[in-house]
Write a structure and sequence with these properties.
Layout: H1 4-10, E1 22-27, E2 31-37, H2 57-76, E3 81-93, E4 102-113, E5 116-125, E6 128-143, H3 144-149
Antiparallel strand pairs: 1-2, 2-4, 3-6, 4-5, 5-6
Length: 151
């Protein structure tokens, strides 16, 4: 549905911090499903944990947050705005994510008040939940192009 070219137009994140490879499903203002292909070449595997690489939980949460960001920007059609995290709640890490896994992620909108959005987020490997939680974010008034020019 959305390939990496479209994702790069929506998110300011770049290697090594871009954590969404493809969008599979999108329902405006409701939900989004995307994937992250986890490879041994991820830079965090060097230190987490060397000979036994495991994807850090914070990186899974970041991947979920980036998927939520794409959902918000695509839903509001404010493509040049910046989305900021507001809170992370009730996060549970249920299973390890290792190189070779395909992280399938889903975010579902549970509440929206103006620019503030709340989503339930889940990440799966082989249809088993590996991480879940609630995320809040807001679409700021800041424009990415204006911030780049002000450097």
């Amino acid at each position: 549905m959305f390939n990496i070219d479209r994702i790069l137009k929506l998110l300011p994140h770049r290697y090594p911090f871009l954590m969404v490879d493809k969008i599979l499903e999108f329902e405006k203002e409701k939900r989004m499903v995307g994937i992250k292909n986890v490879t041994f070449n991820e830079p965090y595997f060097l230190g987490h944990f060397g000979e036994y690489p495991v994807m850090p939980g914070v990186m899974i949460v970041e991947a979920l947050a980036q998927l939520g960001c794409i959902l918000l920007l695509q839903s509001t059609e404010e493509y040049q705005k910046i989305v900021y995290f507001r809170s992370i709640d009730k996060v549970k890490f249920r299973k390890k994510v290792r190189p070779g896994d395909v992280l399938k992620m889903e975010v579902i909108v549970t509440n929206r008040r103006g620019p503030l959005w709340k989503v339930v987020a889940k990440a799966f490997v082989d249809d088993e939940v590996v991480t879940e939680g609630e995320l809040q974010a807001f679409v700021s008034d800041e424009n990415l192009d204006d911030l780049k020019k002000s450097k």
